Amino acid sequence: MTTGPGILSHPDFRRLWIADLLSQLGSRLGMMAAPLLAVLTLNASTLQVSLLRTCETAAWLLLGLFAGAWVDRVRCLPVLIAADVGRAVLFGSIPVAAWFGVLTLTQLYVVLAAAGVLTVLFDVAHSSYPPRLLATEQLLPGNAKLAANHSVAAVVGAGAGGFLVQWLSAAVTLGLNAVGFLWSALWLRSIRTPEPRPAPADRPNLRREIGEGLRYVFRHPLLRPIALNQTTTMLFQAAGSAVMIVFLVREIHLSPSTIGLLSMIGLLGAPAASWFTERLSSWLGDARALLLASVGIGVAFTLQGLTTPGWGLAWYVGSTLLAAICIIVSYIVAISTRQRLCPPDLQGRVSATMSFVSWGAAPIGSLLGGLTATAIGLRPTLLLAGFATLLGTAWLFFSPLRTLQTIPEVSQK
Fold this sequence. Notes:
CATH class: Mainly Alpha
């Protein structure tokens, strides 16, 4: 087994890493193309655009906890492959419908909602799979490499997504999203390390197993504040993100390619954060790094609301840069902490619980953002959402994390 910087010399982790990069690139193209398709082609209102994100993330509320209990019973790799293939089929239907002139907003909602179900299964299995593939000391460098995929995909997907929408159309760009998922599935299928089937429960009880995951998280003095902070952050981040494309197109009057270019410049902070997070965590301590990142996320999303045409675009680029850095730092430290503190037989359920309480807030936040923007306007909504995100740091500050430098290695129940 390899450790530290040499994690990519682990052949099957390398395959997982490549597959994850391709999947993330597909997802990022979709995140840029779907709202632009709704705004520019289907003439959707602000509320209708915000509902896209609601449909995409609603499955976390409906299935998130069940997915965790189920993943703890099965091998993760087949779940990852099936989810990628399913999403490829769904997104491939969009350019086909556009070609025949029958694409509607309803179809877009259905595709995003169905793909959201598969994304829940994929994400829970994906976060539970590294502990089955890697040694404990490899988890932090492994998660850093996987987080780098989020970063690279965010940068490339934002820039390429904007240009591809302007060049090929939003519907065709969503078709390329399907290609990314299919290619990812092929790489996952090439992984050779045997994944043992988890031992079956003596008396399977889905409700009891879900309850065990919930109790572990919310009775844990360190996981509980992290979960509540992530919930608050996701709620108000989703509210702002749901209306951001509408704001940039209809109030700042930017073209898709300009939106993509500016987003790409700002998101360059994400790859940098993936590279230095391990060093930052060693220098400050992972608890302090997590607290600092949370403050940075709130400040960044508040500053986005100051964006104006001309030189005022610097607010958007600068705030996106800060947000990208802090989100990646927070993601790497939080997921590595959860994996270290969680017993192996609870990995899926605890992962699903953490994802449920954070991503489950996303559809509510998206709907809240659309309703608020309809009532008070786009810019006030962005400012309000950013300030509320900043207040979410209180969950970490008024917890044992504030007095720690390094999060303990052993589980605390």
